[in-house]
Amino acid sequence: MPSTPRAAIIPVTPFQQNCTLLWCEATKRAAVIDPGGDLDRIRAAIAKAGVTVEKILLTHGHIDHAGGAADLRDALTVPVEGPHIADKPLLDSLPETGAAYGIDGAKVITPDRWLAEGDTVTVGDLTFDVLHCPGHSPGSVVLVSRDARYAQVGDVLFRGSVGRTDLPGGDHAALISSIKTKLLPLGDDVAFIPGHGPTSTIGQERLSNPFLQ
């Protein structure tokens, strides 16, 4: 029987980004997905869940998702995996972007492992398939547990909306293509945690998301 994933959403930064603490119930091994900042809040959630963080995962390189990754990596001494290497320019410019948005202390982060289409990521006994879904950013990735019918989609797709594409490297046509060719085929029963706002399912978005009609 496949292990069960558990998740706690920790809103961080002035952008209220959904940092996710994801763990394997069987092993209590965890990953922190998109630690944009507010590390005290993240570490409190780790302690409350009683889990051991074994890695940090990044869905893409924007400040509200990656701004705290370097400090959290140093604090926990764990590797960083993701996003796709196409987001390297975003990760390299995190200090400047942070200053522009009034987010102090963001540091450049170089992942220990870049992720690409077809890769897999493990958290405890859980396995996630990596989908490269450019559009919101060139290197955005989505992590899918086909066993658990669950995905972490970053800012690719939201309940009732899609990721913004007016930032550097954004491409609306590419984003819609990523959603229609990679996310919708996952199946209507797949639930997802997005980078902002409430959770949803692929089926709900297929039916009612105005950007997909």
From TrEMBL:
The keyword Zinc applies. It comes from the Bacteria. Residues 16-196 form the Metallo-beta-lactamase domain. It holds the Pfam family Lactamase_B. InterPro entries: MBL_Glyoxalase_II (IPR051453), Metallo-B-lactamas (IPR001279), RibonucZ/Hydroxyglut_hydro (IPR036866). Its cofactor is Zn(2+). Keywords: Hydrolase, Metal-binding, Zinc. One of its GO terms (molecular function) is metal ion binding. The keyword Metal-binding applies. SUPFAM superfamilies: Metallo-hydrolase/oxidoreductase. This is Hydroxyacylglutathione hydrolase GloC.
